[in-house]
């Protein structure tokens, strides 16, 4: 059902936690399945220096959150904004069709955190 990579990222997720005084925070959720993702960004000179996440949800939600953080760390904001759920699924080696919505949440969490960062910049 799940690839070895999905299981690895579920059982040993990377970048779990939160960043105090994060530059951007995004939270998204799916009431239908109960998954909630919160992503924290530390940005310096337009580069995502650090990223952490907290996810309440199934194994696929944890794995996609973890993979998404790995994919954007060290990237520019513009590069991170181009990450799609299909790219996250591909990096994980696939997901069962009924779990694709988890990858969509991971993409949305990235976008929400970047949007929060940008709104804070505009208000400074």
UniProtKB/TrEMBL annotation:
InterPro entries given in the database record: NIF_FeS_clus_asmbl_NifU-like, NIF_FeS_clus_asmbl_NifU_N
Domain NIF system FeS cluster assembly NifU N-terminal, by residue range, is: 1-122
Q: Name one GO biological process term.
A: iron-sulfur cluster assembly
Q: Which Gene3D superfamilies match?
A: 3.90.1010.10
Any single Pfam family the record assigns to this protein: NifU_N
GO terms for molecular function, please? Answer: iron ion binding; iron-sulfur cluster binding
What PANTHER family is this protein classified in? IRON-SULFUR CLUSTER ASSEMBLY ENZYME NIFU HOMOLOG
- Classification via NCBIfam families: NifU_clost (TIGR03419)
Q: What is this protein called?
A: Fe-S cluster assembly scaffold protein NifU
Kindly list the organism's lineage. Bacteria, Bacillati, Bacillota, Clostridia, Eubacteriales
């Amino acid at each position: 059902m799940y690839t070895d990579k999905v299981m690895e990222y579920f059982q040993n997720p990377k970048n779990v936690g939160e960043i105090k005084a994060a530059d951007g925070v995004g939270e998204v959720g799916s009431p239908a399945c109960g998954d909630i993702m919160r992503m924290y960004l530390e940005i310096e000179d337009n580069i995502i220096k650090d990223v952490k996440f907290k996810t309440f949800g199934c194994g696929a939600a944890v794995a996609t959150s973890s993979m998404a953080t790995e994919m954007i760390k060290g990237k520019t904001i513009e590069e991170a904004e181009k990450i799609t759920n299909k790219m996250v699924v591909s990096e994980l080696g696939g997901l069962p069709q009924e779990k694709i919505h988890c990858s969509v949440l991971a993409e949305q969490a990235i976008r929400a955190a970047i949007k929060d960062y940008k709104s804070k910049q505009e208000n400074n």
